[in-house]
Design a protein that fits this description.
The protein is α+β, with helices and mostly antiparallel strands. It has three helices and three strands. The radius of gyration is 13 Å and the shape is globular.
Length: 88
């Protein structure tokens, strides 16, 4: 079987639109390993940039500091992480 990325359109509570895209399982494993601490706890300062770089494809090139509020940043990154893990 060949890998075929899946996408999902997401609209935040603030009304901003994002497109998420899955990555290959090997990349998913790398992201999860890099974004979690020794006890398996998600490290926001590592995981959020990884979500913005690898999962949020539209708008492309987002950084944490481009969001007006932490609330929206957290909402988008959490939804991107759920999508990464479930692929739907």
């Amino acid at each position: 079987m060949a890998y075929t990325p899946k996408t999902k359109e997401f609209t935040s509570k603030a009304g901003n639109k994002y497109t998420f895209q899955t990555v290959m399982n090997s990349k998913t494993a790398e992201i999860i390993d890099e974004g979690t601490g020794p006890q398996g706890k998600v490290l926001n300062h590592k995981m959020i940039p990884l979500m913005l770089e690898h999962v949020v494809v539209t708008p492309a090139g987002l950084t944490m500091d481009e969001f007006d509020t932490w609330t929206e940043l957290e909402e988008v990154s959490n939804e991107a992480f759920r999508f990464l893990r479930a692929g739907q």
